[in-house]
Amino acid sequence: MSFHTGAPSMRRAFSRAPALAAVALFAAAAQAQTPASAGPAADAAANPATNPATNPATNPATSPAIHPAASAAALAPPPFTLEAALQSAAERSAAMQAAQASVRASGEAAVKAGQLPDPTLKAGIDNLPVTGGQRYTIGQDFMTMRRIGIEQQWVSRDKRRLRTALADQRTGRERAGYLMELATVRQQTATAWLEAAYAKEALALREQLAARMDEELAATRAAYRGGAKSGGAADVVAAQALQAQARDQVLAARQALQSALIALSRWTARPVGDVAGAPPAPESYVSSLPPEALRLAQPTLIAASDDIAVAEADTAVATSERKPDWTWEIAYQQRGGAYSNMVSIGVSIPLPINRRDRQDRDVAEKAELASKARLGYEDTERQVEADIRNDSAVLSSGRERIANLRAALLPAAAQRVQLADAAYRAGTGSLADSFAARRAQLDAELQVLELQREVSRTWARLEYQVVPSTLAAAQ
Fold it and tell me: Which interval of the chain is the signal sequence (predicted)?
């Protein structure tokens, strides 16, 4: 189902009588001014094929090969459909590329988390004499030793497993952040495309009215010159004023469309010269998703759930830190040639003598953060569900309002134009009344169009807050 505002009803509603009178007067004037034989120049003007000024093959200004308008049209970017805009935005968004980089960075950190710390190389000289006859000598005193050794902090397998699990959960949270960015980009792109599509329709309505105002002005002038008594100069002045207003509204609508296309190009990251296709029907499947499916497809809920997983994994790591890591060391010690060499083995064990105020406080802190994450998820879930219910209600109400306006307002506006034109032709109504009826008809069609735009914005916000499983699995 696509939105249309009933613009053809305007075309049927406009008066034909003034235009016919203008055509008759212009034809009579042309016949009176045209001589019986104007010679070769007139023949050339009457035959476009022999007239260099009108023959596209001989007139450079109208030749298709070099016509500036044709060249500009060939270089203009193709119009964007909604799906093309969404695809371009997903492929070119810098914010999404940044989110992908964050996911990759978190994945690198996850690999590192499960590794042992690097060993430490230790070297030195022990018991070097600084006084006496053997001062600053290495091989003379029996206590002097050259030492080289290795020190390794040993982190238990369980600790490394828990740290890896925490890093994996953080990577999952970064993926959820990417999905949130993807949903935001799709929402904003769809909204921008809809704004451009409706701005294009509004411009078309304004241009139709302006074109008919031009026709009416020409007909009114012709009738006045032909000696028509109804309205006279006042009708001409009124038609000129209304034509100026209509043209100004066309310029404003054209600028609104240009602004909407520029806003769309911000998301597609490509120039957008036009949009193609009708806006989708305001029907969303999101409101019918069961809670379990919504939790797996709504990025905000996915991120809130991952926050819980990260906090719980962090709590498990803090609990494991209550047991200190031991550090082992082995060293080889070389003495003078007259003495035996030695090997030393040692271990360093931190003493958690204040566990209640240090390690236990860390565990309590992480546990409270996990409680915060769980409560935050509950609040986020309520907010998401409330937003979905509200947007669904707005969509339902909007569809009903659009149907009512199409069934009642637009036909009444068209009938008013017909009655005003009939009264003007019969001499019982004024040209101002006829123009007022046409403006009222345009206002009615624009009212329906504006309502469609608002409903479509709500639809985009509802429909694109969920990431399709195919897109989520592809990342």
Answer: 1-32
